[in-house]
Amino acid sequence: MSWEKNVRKVTPYIAGEQPQGKVIKLNTNEFPYAPSPMVATKIYDLAQEELDGSSSMLRKYPDMDATKLVNAIVSVYNELYFSETEATEEMKQLGFDNVFVGVGSDDVLAMAFMTFFNSDKPVLFPDITYSFYDVWADVHRIPYATQALTDDFSIDINDYMDKENGGIVIPNPNAPTGVYEDPSKFEDIVRANPDSVVIIDEAYVDFGGESCLPLINKYDNVLVVQTFSKSRALAGLRIGVAFGNEKLIKYLKDVKFAFNSYTMNYPAIELATVSVLDTDYWKETVARVIKTREWTKEKLRELDFEFRDSKANFIFASHKSMPAKEIFEKLRKKDIYVRHWNKPRIDNHLRISIGTDEEMKELISTLRTILRDEDPVNT
Ligand SMILES: *Cc1c(COP(=O)(O)O)cnc(C)c1O
Q1: In whole angstroms, what is the distance from residue 165 CA to residue 189 CA?
Q2: For ligand 1, is residue 167 a contact (CB within 6 Å)?
Q3: In what helix (H) or strand (E) does residue 284 lie, and over which residues does it extend?
Q4: Ligand 1 within 6 A of CB of 180
Q5: 3 state DSSP class of 351
Q6: Which atom of ligand 1 is closest in space to residue 175's alpha carbon?
Q7: pLDDT(46) > 60
Q8: Which of the chain's ends, N or C, has fewer CB atoms near its CB within 10 Å?
Q9: To test the ligand 1 pocket, which listed residue (101, 106, 108, 131) has its Cβ within 8 A of the most ligand atoms?
Q10: 312 vs 174: CA distance, rounded Å
Q11: Which residues contact 212 (CB under 8 A, 6 or more apart)?
């Protein structure tokens, strides 16, 4: 058919399965606990307001700047990241114009790719990383060049220091490896590339890493992206955020508003606002996940799994004797879902999200059975 030659053809992103029913789901890095109870309370309040007619907000277009949410993020993040530097004059605090919000960080990242990666030079990112980057590059016709991680899945900083490029994007901790790199490494990359925008995707930084956020006051070419989907337990609500220099944020907003001004709906803005303000609940539940992760690491090691240390809410592991694919399939038969990719360099690895203590105990005991059944001594 003739029109087909004019179609923008892309290979879509493939997400982990979303199985229905009672399964143990450790395949898409969702948070194992409910979001802040303030969120459910707010849903109830919003429904009440609609019902009694005291404020029928759904009838109207939402605030396209999501002012309420951005203000909440500004106050909470200033407290979290800039309170110690408050005293020093030259260290600015975070302001309204340093923050961009979107429908999940996937939306924020897609907008950032469209806005900042607009040259003929290739965008650089690791060969093993979030598998959406090459998809966005393809859909926007952005040239890219992947940079091989070292054998132990570290970033070789030299790959990003003196190569001509049209931009750089790297997650910290990296996905799906879980490997965390010190912010000083990123500062070196940002400093060495003043002619490109460097995007640091911090989807998992809350699980034990240090954020690169303070870099935005020192450099005008760094964008730090975070999400409410992982540590704030709101993957279903779709909230993402980017931090950067005022100029960078302005350019990002221009593209967003040229594309669709009203992506963030009114309930989402309200619910995300109460979520971000409940810092105590967030800290407490994140600490629980970290504790469970450390327990899981110990148990996996006892079962002869090997992995780089993870500072995310998942562990990327391979087994000393049983192939990853076989373990993946055997777990799946027992209704335990983890993630496996048939991709070079990582096809003998499983990415295991951290669930509740009960889920991880079930995983470990099921793994024990699977591995023991294969043990020649027992057969
Ligand atoms: C989960 C994830 C995201 C996106 O999450 P959203 O739900 O779209 O906010 C972005 N980057 C990485 C590396 C992720 O793992």
Answers
A1: 12
A2: no
A3: helix 279-302
A4: no
A5: strand
A6: 13
A7: yes
A8: N
A9: 106
A10: 8
A11: 172, 183, 186, 187, 200, 202, 222, 224
* pLDDT score recorded for residue 57: 83
Cβ atoms of residues 169 and 201 within 8 Å: yes
Residue nearest to atom 12 of ligand 1 (CA): 203
How far, in Å, is the centroid of ligand 1 from the Cα of 152? 23
pLDDT value at 379 more than 50: no
Please answer whether residues 56 and 50 qualify as being in contact, where contact means their C-beta atoms are separated by less than 8 angstroms.
yes
pLDDT at 362: 98
Tell me, using a 6 A CB cutoff, whether residue 359 lines ligand 1. no
Give the residue whose CA is nearest to atom 2 of ligand 1.
203
- State which amino acid sits at residue 14: I
Q: What is the pTM of this model?
A: 0.95
Answer whether 213's CB lies under 8 Å from 237's CB. Answer: no
Q: According to the model, what pLDDT value does residue 84 have?
A: 64
**Cα angle at 262 between 260 and 268, to 5 degrees?**
135
Per-residue pLDDT reduced to its tens digit, 314-334: 999 999 999 999 999 999 999
Gap from CA of 137 to ligand 1 centroid (Å): 16
Domains of the chain listed by start with CATH number: 16-35+280-371 (3.90.1150.10), 37-277 (3.40.640.10)
Q: What's the pLDDT at 89?
A: 47
Residue 377 has pLDDT above 70, yes or no: no
Q: How far is the CA of 377 from the centre of ligand 1 (A)?
A: 43
CB distance 62 to ligand 1 below 6 Å = no
Report the pLDDT value the prediction gives residue 17, as an integer from 0 to 100.
86
CA–CA dist 312, 207 (Å, integer): 5
Beta bridge partners of 135: none
Tell me, in angstroms, the distance from the centre of ligand 1 to residue 29's CA: 9
* DSSP for residue 16: P
Token reading at 76: 């909470």
What pLDDT digit, counting tens, does each position of 62-92 carry?
999 999 999 999 999 999 988 765 555 445 7
